[in-house]
Amino acid sequence: MSVSTVAVDASICSPLPVLGRDVTVPLVTGGTIAYAALDYAASAPALQRVWDDVAAYAPYYGSVHRGAGYLSQFSTDLFEKARRTVAEFLGCRADDQVVFTRSTTDSLNLLARVVPADCRVFVFETEHHAALLPWQDDRVTYLDAPRSPRQAVETLERALAGRDPYGPALVCVTGASNVTGELWPVRELAAAAHAHGARIVLDAAQLAPHHPVSLTDLDVDWVAFSGHKLYAPFGAGVLAGRADWLREAEPYLAGGGASRRVARRADGRVEVEWHESAARHEAGSPNVIGAYAVASACTALTEAGWDALVTREQYLIDRVRSGLAEIPQVRVLSLFGDDAPRVGVLSFVVDGWNSSHFAAALSAEYGIGVRDGLFCAHPLLRTLLGTAPQTPAECGAPSLNAIRASFGAGTPDEHVDRFVTAVRRLVTEGAKWTYRTEEGRCVPVA
């Protein structure tokens, strides 16, 4: 089926307004074109609604939790309301905590810091490095890449059945792959974890921008995600979930805001009483604008309606995949198979092409921004490509790295159509421009 013949469902919602939708970029072949941002999996453009909310608040910005003045009190109230908004967005339970962090990476490193010393950790090798790398000691069991959702559950069950049943255990899983976009069986994995007395944390960095995420419905113990993938700028993230390990551990950062009382002892040392609330792990001046932006994005997505957003994204996914399927030289990467449900993230390789060269040509000649390489998921790419990831090759030399296109609530039809057309033309006609290697990347020759 060609892109032009994919039927348009009249019930599909329009793209949500995002920043950058009117930005034009120069083409090496001459002229300019509206930029097609297809790298949502790295950082999604900010929703216009979020930017407007932040701009309206900016004149009232003040220190949080530390001032008696009006702006400080106003900002503190805004910050704590943002926490409640995020808790509602994530379906948090009454006794869950919402901790504001810098990112998913920061959230998972925080959780890694607070797990009990004798806790066993189980993580699939398919995880993004943010979820794969925080657990670096002999307590960690790395699980082989499954080739189906059922195999994922069976692999986890076998691993948990073989552990010491009396110590604590934690399972770390993704909700949607940042490489293939495939949805993982989170609810089933959570059931398997709990059946064996383990807890589970969900890396929702790629899931939360595309599907509703509820700790209650999925029955996970924690969830982590990043604002910059949820259409919110300013470098804020979230770790939400069970409070007990968070309360019992030493603070992730020591400093002001995390401490309830500090006093000198008779021996001259300092005695500290730490907060038991989320503030325990939010030392320093918090990123109130970032937290507010995340909450604004949560509200905007909820009000837009998940049914409509998911329906539109599936329409775009089908449109892209049907177009790429007509190009024999293109191989879309998948763990679970072509029929696996997925979000708007897909990676592919092109026969005879260097991935950096291909991505550079998409940008320079067609105004399309994608990502190429290994996507901070090296073990997964090794499995998908059937070989060890290669170091960047010179422009024009084929390489077994991948190209990733990703999109979401702000993507118009024209961007995905232009992408499919550009891929077809590059494969059949080649690049129109000359490229050279500069610091490991292909760039157009000036």
UniProtKB/TrEMBL annotation:
Pfam families: Aminotran_5
Cofactor: pyridoxal 5'-phosphate
Sorted UniProt keywords: Pyridoxal phosphate
InterPro entries: Aminotrans_V_dom, PyrdxlP-dep_Trfase, PyrdxlP-dep_Trfase_major, PyrdxlP-dep_Trfase_small
Residues in Aminotransferase class V domain copies: 38-419
Keyword Cytoplasm: no
Designated name of the protein: Cysteine desulfurase
Annotated organism of origin: Streptomyces malaysiense
